[in-house]
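User: Predict the complex.
Assistant: Input components as received:
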Amino acid sequence: MSDEANKGLLSPLRRKLLMGMAAVPAITMLPKASFAQAPATSAVNTTGLAVTDTEVTVGILHSATGTMAISETGSIEAEKLAIEQINAMGGVLGRKIKFIQEDGASDWPTFAEKAKKLLVNDKVAAIMGCWTSASRKAVLPVMEQYNGMLYYPTFYEGLEQSKNVIYTGQEATQQILAGLNWIAKEKGAKTFFFIGSDYIWPRTSNKIARKHVENVLKGKVVGEEYYALGSTQFNSVINKIKLTKPDVIFTDVVGGSNVAFYKQLKAAGIDLAKQPLLTISVTEDEIDGIGGENIAGAYACMKYFQSLDNANNKTFVPAFKKAWGEKTVIGDVTQAAYLGPWLWKLTVEKAGSFDVDKIAAASPGVEFKGAPEGYVRIHENHHLWSKTRVGRAKLDGQFELIYETADLVEPDPFPKGYQ
Amino acid sequence: MTDNRFFNRSELIGILVLAVFLVVVLPLTLDVFRLNLVAKYLTYAFVALGLVICWGYGGILSLGQGVFFGLGGYCMAMFLKLEASSVENTKIQSTPGIPDFMDWNQITALPFFWKPFNSLTFTIAAIILVPGIFALIIGTAMFKRRVGGTYFAIITQAVAAILTILIVGQQGYTGGINGMTDLRTLKGWDIRPDHAKVVLYFFEVGLLFACIMIAQFVRHSKLGRILVAMREKEDRVRFSGYSVANFKIFAFCIAAMFAAIGGAMFALNVGFMSPSFVGIVPSIEMVIYTAVGGRLSILGAIYGTLLVNFAKTSLSETFPELWLFGLGGLFIAVVLAFPNGLAGIWGDYVQPRIDRLIASRKSKPDGWTDSSVADGAPAE
């Protein structure tokens, strides 16, 4: 565990934690603990979680049915794969991870109900789950009330921070700012046209993007349009784009609407090779539906692409395909979901305990060197330090890495000057 | 059996059995988590009860009850959200003291129509009156022009769709697709801990029985008979000098108000309100509860709601990826095999046996023919 990352955490909790960690070797010497390296259950679980001498239970809570199933299936698969790999390596504190999967059914109250069931009935030690902001907002009060631990994988709008959540995706400023800087510099872009789906994430993201364009890049936003979720008619906005001729089209349209949007864009004669388009919502998963030929040339700004060329990713992609089929693609969120179980395991080992309070306190500074996106580290605010990358969509549905930030970008869920 | 009595003997027994079941059996056998789930199911029972009057007796199929459930729920949620958005709770926002979603949407002052919801009295009145008046307007517009049957059902669906779009689109004022989350206290009383859930459960059961009494009264009054007559032969009732439209409006309004009470209880029990209860799909689901329970039976609708929701929860917990098929199969099986739902099964098979048993003990066969039809087919 890196000590320099822990500088900020000089709380009494940390002292307690260190004392607890110091006690761990002593506990293993007790006759009760017959397992090698497996500390006694009573020592690592003081709050009645589902931990036995050989097993620890976690929950997986995503939509396996309903409109979000198409997006969330990748996350379920990634989390199961991570758990399998951790178990193959001997588990966590000498205990195998067992998971209970619940279906949020693309329905936010169902998410809340199932989260409560996992925490109250099953006493799971952690929950890997949620995808949309709406489902997270529904689950958050439950996590806080019953003191659970949620690992949330999606890039999201920020403006939130909780002791009971680790955000393994990027928050808005991490995802957007570096991408806008890059495109402004590279393409000399001055005018931007924003198009988004009409809900909290695109609206907040565009708010941040607008402030950045106007105040930092000294550019101009020439249009900002929103469409209801699931909308398929983009002709009027495409006409406006043709009239205003922006240097960059900036989009955060989500889900199935993307298919219609890019097809209509192409049909209207807008050539993405000449007209720069920066999206923060299209991953390899979405391109599967859009079709590579309709989106080739567009730029996407996020933290992970399946095509990343590093040692971790070269073992991760084949392992994922082996587990879930050759044809599956891995998008940004799927990778972030894969981080959840690993970060939890590393934090448990750092804390020497499954107790949620100790895990929440031990999380800052936890680093995962085996992440497919490269090195990541948990910040004091429970978000991840991560690089921002820009990729260019190719005909085969993959992204070609064009640019990445030199250093990890600090997560800043409550950005000053952007609200 | 006289007209002005609330219930006959077998109905009284049925209500007592339900009361024992809800007040004694469930709280003693379930832990607080499951009991809270039952409380959530029962909020839909209010809607199902309204549908029995409106659809079962009045023959008016409304596929938009989610609208009224939602209006009631949103009224309650607005009050709770305002209380949860005190200045000290929302210090982190750019404008403290307004609900968090308004802050995210760059709204800097509380909109005027939110202000009255600072008062609990106003909120309670609004929970009943807003949906009631809305139903009155729709009902008057439709029934006075003799729009009925399928056309009415389609229009109620359209209303449900419109309201969903409105709520999602005006997210600065309504919370959009996220809904209103993180509701915490009612007049300073924390609604989240376990003991509060138990108190809310019993309060809700009490309300439900009040609504059952109203439904019983409607059913046994002359009004209920006219509703049934209207369902069977609307023109005859009209030619007899009754204003058919007014009776329909009345049934529709009652159903709307019941649904709204359910919605308000939902917001209290679940601490949550979102547009996913307002749209077409939840509205149709609510009709299914009634259909499974038996649309002609007040108590059947309540058992139907409990059964369907229980099946939904347990199937989805056991088979997270396949449960929807199981649930769909259940609906099809019940509706195909038993058009009158659970109450139909009871009335056709179980009740006659019980009656025969009682009758064979008592030589006097008084009333049993009456009660054997009472549950399944009222006043036919």
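Chain B has a mean pLDDT of 87.
Let me know if you want any component modeled separately.
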